[in-house]
Design a protein that fits this description.
alpha/beta, homodimer, about 45% helix
């Protein structure tokens, strides 16, 4: 039985803890959080620690805290036996930690506590300072149904940037679209079938081939009218810049 | 039996023709396109016309051509009996056409010929210069399983702008995300579970509440590193502007 400790009580820690409780071959032996209150949504049967010096012996320590706190946690637990990984897309351990058994276990997904999440089919990018630890991390990923992908810091940092475009920025565009509807007294749910189809199309068309709309067609009249309809200067600039980026993308092909 | 003629041979015309062939109570009596070759993917049993003067008598003429061609087509067929509608989100008939029975039948969806499309649950915004034609347009929308929504030109133009954000611009972000993956030797399919979850989240969280990421958290270190990772000046500007727009959105709340 592989013994795992999770350090953190945020969304990633929450969903990993849920997944490990159901996983075969893995025992979640402890959770660490600064206060016991931070675990109110977590399974009550898992032992909790509120100071890092109390951490139990384990095969794997998963540091699932904010990027700026990872190195600090690591410094306090680096003397422990067991592999120590973080779950961040953009953080890289300082190079002087290479002597330790460190690694990365980065699930490429967006997490909210309010939404049930199944790791089945979700890529987890794995890295290890000592290559012999890679197979171990792949086993852990598979134990929760995820798809392990061997990665490097450079590739992971790039994937994290891609994820910001595909998730954070896309979500902001959904917000702007909903906001336009709301300002004109329309229910933003009207847009959902369109949003669903936008994503479903990716199954058969690359996003490059799926591109449509006034910017793709070079329809200046509609673009000018759209910019005028936008109430805020930032959103007008955003419209113009994304439209410009679309035009540049297809111009190169001509 | 309601008799319908579709003017146009593009994606919207194609999917409406397929839907009407299966609809109850509606007969698709003719398709118009400038050349017979434009109908190679269309049902061969529907009569075709290549000049507007050949148009058959019908209850409804649906002009599904590019925005800049709609008014021209209308001028050539306005003497016909029957209601004449267009399918555009942004085009508005010139006001002098109000004497005619005109209207709008705007399906809020993205269309590609290569992808099967079911109108079930898809909103169709309907407008009519003569209010007594609205019920007729709602019946037509329902005949193909769509959800008719009474609209106005202003509301429709706003929805079209929202659709540009929710579909065209979002798709461009998917392209940029795929492109980042490709440039780092990664399969962009890794991003699909994340993209699917981004959309699935909208069922339980508003996009405003679902927002996460470095811009939302005000994580400057990650944002600076991301901008450095981007190869093109336009994409760097795009990153900075969307991140700025996210920050502004949540700043107002404080």
């Amino acid at each position: 039985m592989i013994q795992v400790v999770i350090v953190g009580s945020g969304n990633v820690a929450f969903h990993l803890h849920r997944a490990f409780l159901k996983a075969h071959g893995v025992a979640l032996v402890q959770l660490y959080g600064r206060t016991s209150a931070s675990f109110s949504d977590f399974d009550q049967s898992v032992p909790k620690a509120c100071t890092l010096s109390e951490l139990a012996q384990a095969d794997l320590y998963i540091i699932a805290v904010s990027d700026d706190a990872i190195q600090g946690v690591f410094e306090q637990i680096r003397s422990l036996k067991g592999l120590i990984v973080h779950t961040s897309g953009s953080f890289n351990f300082e190079s002087k930690t290479d002597g330790n058994r460190t690694g990365v276990f980065y699930p490429l997904q967006t997490f909210s506590k309010t939404r049930e999440l199944n790791f089945a089919g979700i890529p987890i990018l794995v890295e290890a300072a000592h290559p012999e630890d890679l197979g171990f991390l792949r086993t852990i990923a598979k134990s929760i149904g995820a798809l392990p992908e061997n990665s490097t810091a450079d590739a992971r940092n790039a994937v994290h940037l891609a994820a910001v475009f595909a998730n954070n920025f896309t979500n902001h565009l959904f917000f702007l679209a909903s906001d336009i509807c709301a300002k004109h007294g329309l229910n933003s749910k009207l847009l959902y079938p369109l949003i669903q189809e936008t994503v479903a199309k990716l199954e058969i068309l690359s996003p490059k081939d799926a591109q449509t709309g006034p910017a793709r067609r070079g329809d200046r009249t509609t673009q000018i009218r759209h910019v005028e309809l936008l109430a805020s200067g930032i959103h007008q600039e955003l419209y113009k810049l994304i439209a410009h980026s679309i035009q540049k993308t297809y111009e190169k092909e001509l």
